UniProtKB/TrEMBL annotation:
Pfam families: LMWPc. Gene3D superfamilies: 3.40.50.2300. Keywords: Hydrolase, Protein phosphatase. The keyword Oxidoreductase does not apply. One of its GO terms (molecular function) is protein tyrosine phosphatase activity. InterPro entries: LMW_PTPase, Ptyr_pPase, Ptyr_pPase_sf, Tyr_phospatase_low_mol_wt. Its EC number is 3.1.3.48. This is protein-tyrosine-phosphatase. PANTHER family: LOW MOLECULAR WEIGHT PHOSPHOTYROSINE PROTEIN PHOSPHATASE, LOW MOLECULAR WEIGHT PROTEIN TYROSINE PHOSPHATASE. It catalyses: O-phospho-L-tyrosyl-[protein] + H2O = L-tyrosyl-[protein] + phosphate. CDD domains: LMWPTP (cd16343). Belongs to the low molecular weight phosphotyrosine protein phosphatase family.
Amino acid sequence: MIKVLFICHGNICRSTMAQYVMQYLVDKRGLSDCFYIDSAATSTEEIGNRPHRGTQAKLYEVGIPCGDHRAVQMKRSDYEKYDYLIGMDTWNIRNMNRIAGGDPEHKIHKLLEFTNRDGDIADPWYTGNFDETYTDVMEGCQDLLEHILKEDME
């Protein structure tokens, strides 16, 4: 089983969106039994909160189920538990490395690393643009899934 943890600052916008997008893509391919997908935050400020209403609305608009995830903070033990720890931006990666105590097994990546453009996914908490975030998250998740299928499931 491939275990993927998506991580952003608060775990209410980008990482939950990525969690549900990736689960949707995996389910569409009939691979649900092969994956465990979750999300977490690097901060504590949103712990216990549900996904942002903008994330929920965008996922609803595109027909992707949005579950009842509650924000949690990434723990050091997550590094051992997951095969992929996927951050949304450079600050997330810095904080993920701090929480994990480093990345000796090269499990920590930015989501857009798997696309042909390695950049940050803008935080819609600040931009208000959930459409742009969704476009980047969908592209990143599609390419991450292809990478996993090629590298880990052949």
